[in-house]
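Honest question from a wet-lab person: if I give you the sequences of every part of a complex, can you actually get the arrangement of the whole thing, not just the pieces? Trying it with mine:
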Amino acid sequence: MEFDKLVHQPTRLQLFAHLYANGETSFSALTDDLEITEGNLASHIGKMEEADCVAVNKQFVDGSPQTTYRLTEHGEDLFEAHVQTLEELIDGLDS
Amino acid sequence: MEFDKLVHQPTRLQLFAHLYANGETSFSALTDDLEITEGNLASHIGKMEEADCVAVNKQFVDGSPQTTYRLTEHGEDLFEAHVQTLEELIDGLDS
DNA sequence: AATGTGACTTTGTATCACAAAGTATTATGT
DNA sequence: ACATAATACTTTGTGATACAAAGTCACATT
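Yes, you can. This is the full assembly:
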């Protein structure tokens, strides 16, 4: 039973889950939905990028910058593995 | 979606799960099963005690000290709530 | 009394999350 | 062209945290 610290950390776990469930999502949508500060989001997303878990897309929409993020395949794989680890832990409670 | 840091931390999450599933467990069984050092176990269990999540029982068995731990009701409640939070996160992935 | 075992406690360190404030990029308005 | 505004970061500082390693303590047996 191993926990990947990158994925398990609460804020990032929610980021992974959000991106996994909702697909490509904008910076501001993430700060709004997860109720975290911009600095914090940038920091956590940065670590996910470094680990090749997240791909970034920057563009201008209606005259304003808009950055969107999505999970890479590797990010999806890591998250799925982590969810499985959690499910195993939960399933093991019945025994 | 809130994560209780006390419960979510990987080593303690496994401690909670182990005590929840197996009931009263000895110090040495915990270091063996979770593969953590004695110092580390003492430290994490200490935090769980402080939070009234764990009850301790010290005795001598066959001339050797043996400490056992079990979850308090409060500990069980906290863990169950946390598991539910995790399940909700996982269930939300389908949408 | 001396030794041994189990269960801690102490000490030190490196990492980390977070908040707050500062900065950079580009668009729009005048 | 210049100033301003909006988004998306980056920097700085701080307090908390996990962990390893080593030291200590209580009690029982010999």
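Two things worth pointing out. The helical segments of chain B are 5-8, 10-22, 27-34, 38-50, 73-91. Strands of chain B lie at 25-26, 54-61, 64-71.
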